Amino acid sequence: MEAEKYIYKDLSRQPVGAAFKVYNSAGFGMPEKYIQAAYAEELKSLGLKFDREYHLQLSCYDKPIAKHFADFRVEDRIIIEIKVRAYPGYVHIKQVQAYLLASGDKLAIILYFTKDGVKFRRVLNPKNIQ
What we know:
This protein is α+β, with helices and mostly antiparallel strands and 130 residues long. It has three helices and five strands, in the order H-H-E-E-E-H-E-E. Helices cover 35% and strands 35% of the residues. The radius of gyration is 14 Å and the shape is globular.
């Protein structure tokens, strides 16, 4: 993908960088809820606007079928999902794609806190892929 085609290229660097700072401080093995709390503090220190446990209403045939909560939504544009795992998982991509479809946002970033450091994956809204 060409650099100019990245969605929110500059904005997305900050939430990813925040994850690295949290990992450098907390390391691997902390429960996810503690990592999320530390991550929220790092986002605050960066001056980023965010919602924690961002509510999403999933619908089918224009009828509500489920409620979900994304871990974070940063600057009203990027969904952030945090996972503490030994390795990344495909199921999380499908999870955030559902969040993107429900929210209409263009980009989600999954931040994996693994034994080998922070890994991240950018996930695009399937409706916005050209």
